[in-house]
Design a protein that fits this description.
By secondary structure, the protein is of the alpha/beta class. The protein contains 15 helices and twelve strands.
């Protein structure tokens, strides 16, 4: 059922309102030229997370087009139904599990994504930044020096830095990101083993990797790095049983999705010494609560979901959003000057939900 057009014909340039949400890095204005779009519409940038679903609905109720950063602000059916003016919904990247795309499209709302830029390279590199920060004890060493101690005092002592060469890394999900992580590991002289539900021996060996069963990977790997798409069959792929199998010096790394691991169970597992450390970029709730125990746990190295956050990725996102919205605004405003109730043809770049194929579970 098509949603009735809410905007009236008139001085349409002042009526068309566009919200650019989730600009937590405060980089959207500088990553693209918004000048033409700002002449066509009232464009507002939201640089802080919405405090609640009700807050998002209240602040976005009067916008005709809304842009979301992938999987930051959730847009389920309950939110979409409370935004009567919404005609165009865009998100960055090629998938967004936090948006009820089918429901939005059923209301006649045009939905599309963008190209992703080098986000897979960015995530793979960030994975290794976390691995090295954790194993080389970068954070506690830096904090000690900042406090005036060239070496830590007794009460602040941390484990000696470690060496990865000659040890084993287990990559769970040997797709576009996991394969990059594996190649870097090989450059460090590590033995690479891998597992996922669909991975074959041939696929692994073509990358110089050995496929092993999940439990063997978990029990024998010094570093365990997750690179799966979150789905019903990958949710909590790491839980109590898997924690109990890990080496006491194991490092568990998650730059994919928090739902891949039992995050609450991880706290108890770290306290028991299996794994020895965790390096996390994703959390069950984002932004994470200020008093969350993972933030201050001595065996956790963490970053605030920065895997895909990189200048060329953000420039790709926002340039395409600005271009698509400018085309759409021109069409919509011109049509409204001629006839009420017109809905323009799609102006997106082709990265639409219907064009997003069902993918394997590996990133």
């Amino acid at each position: 059922m098509q949603r009735a057009q809410e905007a009236e014909v008139g001085s349409v340039a002042s009526e068309l309102r566009i919200a650019i949400c989730d600009d937590w890095e405060q980089c959207a204005p500088s990553c693209s030229d918004w000048g033409e779009l700002q002449q066509l519409a009232d464009v507002q940038f939201f640089s802080a997370p919405f405090q609640s679903t009700e807050d998002a609905i209240r602040r976005l109720a009067d916008f005709d087009a809304i842009c979301l950063m992938r999987e930051r602000t959730a847009f389920p059916k309950e939110v979409i139904d409370q935004l009567p003016r919404l005609k165009r919904l865009l998100f960055t990247g090629e998938r967004n599990a936090a948006v009820d795309i089918a429901h939005a499209r059923s209301l006649g709302i045009e939905v599309s994504g963008t190209a992703s830029g080098p986000n897979k390279a960015s995530t793979a590199e960030h994975t290794w930044a976390l691995i090295l920060a954790a194993t080389r004890r970068i954070v506690p060493a830096m904090q000690s020096a900042q406090q005036g101690h060239w070496r830590p005092l007794d009460e602040a002592r941390y484990p000696l830095p470690d060496v990865l060469e000659g040890d084993r890394i287990g990559v769970i999900g040997l797709g576009a990101i996991g394969s990059r992580v594996a190649r870097i590991a090989q450059g460090f002289g590590m033995e690479v083993v891998a597992w996922s539900q669909n991975l074959t021996d041939q696929q692994a060996s073509s990358l110089g990797v050995r496929r092993v069963e999940k439990n063997e990977l978990i029990a024998t790997s010094k570093v365990i790095s997750l690179h799966l798409v979150l789905s019903d069959r990958t949710r909590a792929v790491i839980g109590h049983t898997e924690y109990s199998l890990m080496r006491r010096d194991a490092l568990l790394v998650n730059t994919s999705r928090s739902g891949l691991i039992d995050q609450q169970g991880l706290i108890a597992a770290l306290d028991s010494g299996r794994p020895g450390h965790a390096a996390l970029d994703v959390f069950d709730q984002e932004p994470i609560a200020k008093n969350h125990p993972l933030l201050t746990h001595p065996r956790v190295t963490h970053t605030p979901h920065l895997g895909y956050v990189a200048a060329p990725v953000m420039e790709t996102f926002y340039r395409q959003l600005a271009n698509d919205l400018t085309t759409w605004a021109r069409q919509w405003l011109a049509s409204n000057a001629a006839a009420e109730g017109y809905r323009p043809e799609s102006s997106d770049s082709g990265v639409t939900p219907s064009a997003i194929r069902k993918r394997d579970t590996m990133l």
